[in-house]
Amino acid sequence: MAWTNIEMADEVIKFFKPHTSVNLGIGMPTVIAERLPQDLEIMIHSENGLLGVSGRPTKETVSSTLINAGKETVKIKKGASFFDSSLSFGMIRGGHIDYCVLGGMEVDAQRNLANWMIPGKKVTGMGGAMDLVNGSKQVIVMMSHASKTGEAKLLFECSLPLTGKNVVDLVITELGIFKPNGKAFEIIKLAPGVSRSDLNMNETILL
Amino acid sequence: MKKSPKIYTDAKSALFDIKSGDTLMSGGFGLCGIAENCIDALTEINVKNLTVISNNIGNSGRGLVKILIQDKISKAVCSYVGGNPDLEKRMLNKEIDVELVPQGTFAERIRAAGLGIRAFYTPTGYGTLIAEGKEVKTFDRPCILETALHADFAIIKAQKGDSYGNLWFKEAARNFSPLMAMAAKTTIVEVEELVELGEIPAEDIHLPGIFVQRIFQGSNYKNDIEFLVTEGEK
User: Fold this and answer.
1) Is residue B65 domain-resident?
2) Could you tell me if residue B203 is inside a domain?
3) Does B176 touch chain A (CB under 8 A)?
4) Predicted TM-score (pTM) of this structure
5) Which residues contact B4 (CB under 8 A, 6 or more apart)?
6) CA distance, residue B163 to nearest chain A CA (Å)
7) Chain-wide mean pLDDT for chain B?
8) CATH no. for residue B104?
9) What angle do CA B175, B179, B185 make, to 5 degrees?
10) Which of residues 125-164 of A touch B (CB under 8 A)?
């Protein structure tokens, strides 16, 4: 049985140490914000300029100037702060953010990530992803195991333009958790009932 | 209100000398903190071939998309074009020149311009398309050389400002705005509240007025929310 997005978020949270900071990318990783237990005392960083994101506002407290990097309305917790984009990325580049969790189009065994464009087809831009993967202490990619058309996303070598070279520490998909080691992916854990053969990956890159 | 040469009546009067071919910085993250009045005024000013430097070039018909669809922008420097079909379409059809810059590098290049730093080395983008043609130097790890990003004008929105141009931003609306205000030759600020000198306590000023050349009391703010998500939804 493949994990749901919520179960994937809970698996990622198990890697977090208390009293740390995490940046959550657009899409799937935002589920983590809603699942994060308060007693871990983790500060959620949002690169548009806030530290201390905490869940969603009510209809009464919603504010157009209180959004996350996905441009969704959020609320903040006690101890939160606001700052400009230079300081925000200084936190990232300066190595002050413990974890970043972001989506991916392809990850390869050499720890490369591609998630910002498909040449000639789709361009979203890299936003803050290139800074995040180079600056955060640990980079976790949270993505679907295969593309919408069923193509493998865990590869020996990315075919799409890279977001970062040699940067990925951990990959979580609905089928399992994988650690790229430069040559292959180590299986850290598989979702219940999932076996190696369900992964549909080239055996030479699977430890 | 104390008289000040910086105070203008509205966006159109503050933008009186913008001309075709100018480089324009525009503050805001998505639609949060954008200079709505200035953007609306630009839809009525006859300019072409603008180079626009802004994290997002608006989205779905709003913000800078208003002047994008008037074909007033010939070059865009930004970090994210997702959720902006008007821009993505023009980009893939090569109708506009788009320079995509990693967001942290984007912010720092703008800050550098305002603060007299000519260039800096950063690990961001090393080994990617972004690094092509750029000088690489290895410190603890390989870094690429990025240069300062200047502009003729910046259009900025702040919650509060005084007649000297001291600014106070609300919540996460600050983003790129103070950096752009520092980097442009002429910075035009629109505020929700134009206040008397001294009303913003000196220790609470987010951007000192020395970086601001023109300021006006804005009006009719929409303050659009792109994705409204409240407790219990989603």
Assistant:
1) yes
2) yes
3) yes
4) 0.96
5) B163, B164
6) 22
7) 96
8) 3.40.1080.10
9) 140
10) 125-131, 134-135, 161-164
> Tens of pLDDT along chain B (234 residues)?
778 999 999 999 999 999 999 999 999 999 999 999 999 999 999 999 999 999 999 987 899 999 999 999 999 999 999 889 999 889 888 899 999 999 999 999 999 999 999 999 999 999 999 999 999 999 999 999 999 999 999 999 999 999 999 999 999 999 999 999 999 999 999 999 999 999 999 999 999 999 999 999 999 999 999 999 998 765
**Which range of residues forms the domain containing residue B123?**
19-217
Single out the residue of B87, B77, B85 nearest to residue B55, CA to CA: B77
Q: How many angstroms separate the CA atoms of B117 and B112, rounded?
A: 5
| Cβ(A180)–Cβ(A161) below 8 Å | no
Among residues B54, B81, B154, B150, the alpha carbon closest in space to that of B109 is found at B150
Distance CA A49, CA A81 (A): 8
Q: Contact B138/B174 with Cβ under 8 angstroms?
A: no
In chain A, what residues touch B229 (CB-CB under 8 Å)?
A: 56, 72-74
Residue B178, H or E segment: helix B177-183
Q: How confident is the prediction along chain A (207 residues), in pLDDT tens digits per residue?
A: 899 999 999 999 999 999 999 999 988 998 999 899 999 999 999 999 999 999 899 999 999 999 999 999 999 999 999 999 999 999 999 999 999 999 999 999 999 999 999 988 888 899 999 999 999 999 999 999 999 999 999 999 999 999 999 999 999 999 999 999 999 999 999 999 999 999 988 888 998
Residue B205 lies in a domain: yes
Residue B75's DSSP bridge partners are: B51, B97
A80 touches chain B (CB under 8 A): no
User: In chain B, how many domains are there?
Assistant: 1
pLDDT at position A120: 83
Q: What are the E-state strand segments in chain A?
A: 21-24, 43-46, 50-53, 76-82, 99-102, 106-108, 113-114, 117-118, 122-123, 138-142, 154-155, 170-172, 176-180, 185-190
Instruction: With respect to residue B78, please indicate whether it lies within any of the assigned structural domains.
Output: yes
Map out the domains of chain A with their CATH numbers: 5-205 (3.40.1080.10)
* CA distance, residue A37 to nearest chain B CA (Å): 16
Tokens found for residue A69: 């990097």
Separation of alpha carbons A127 and A158, rounded Å? 20
